[in-house]
Design a protein that fits this description.
Layout: H1 30-42, H2 46-62, H3 66-83, H4 86-102, H5 109-124, H6 128-145, H7 152-166, H8 170-184, H9 191-208, H10 214-226, H11 235-250, H12 254-269
Amino acid sequence: MDYLEPCCCFDSSLYTGTPDAEPCRQSIDVPAAIRKLDGLYNSGREQEAGAFLERQRDEARAIGDWRGELSMLSELLGYHRRDGDREKAMRAVNEALDLIRIHRLGSTVSGATVLLNAATTMKAFGRARESLPIFKHAARIYADNLDPTDYRFAGLYNNMALSYQDVGDFAGAERCFRLALGVIGHSRHPENELAVTWCNLAELYDRQDPEDPRIGDCMEKAWDCLNAPGLPRDGYHAFTISKCAPSFDYFGYFLYAKELKERAEEIYARS
């Protein structure tokens, strides 16, 4: 299989059916691995995080723990979206899709979540059109199994919106961004995610009309979210800043961008 070229046609029938419920005889400690991973991210040790995930994936594969392997592959998808390694990202996409297909997990929430992660990675590396059928499948599985306000819908809608945007379906993109805002608003500390979504909406409006007055409204709302009282200024907040600061720079909010970047540096310095 050419890992640089994932299958362009997503046939959901190949991924659904009766899920494999057979337990793995040996398994890695996935919760412990995730805690270790979070610690590496929160202290800004990105390269160590990647190497750690690869070791955990290899260990799971070696002992036949396909569930643990799939969990680590899902984390690697997010990691490679950060580090920009297209070859490794597409390899992880195909390996994850293979496991979901072999074990018929496509009709489960956990499987749909990995599919969502794979589609998001495909979009990040220029394969937005191919990602949309996968997003739509994940949306159907979520709709059949989750409460409409479940936070997992927020990531689905936000990332699907970006794929719609890339293929030029701006109405579809705005609809998904608005749906994401509605879901995020039900969460306990929504400010980081709201800020990212407002920045995304600003960029969508800019694509259609750089003079759209809604751009400024979106960026001010993003700024208010990032400065909300009581918002924890932790590693995740610093990561959110890394996603929002370029938008503030692009739209000319240079002082805002400068303050945010300095804040992120302070967070990482004390981690």
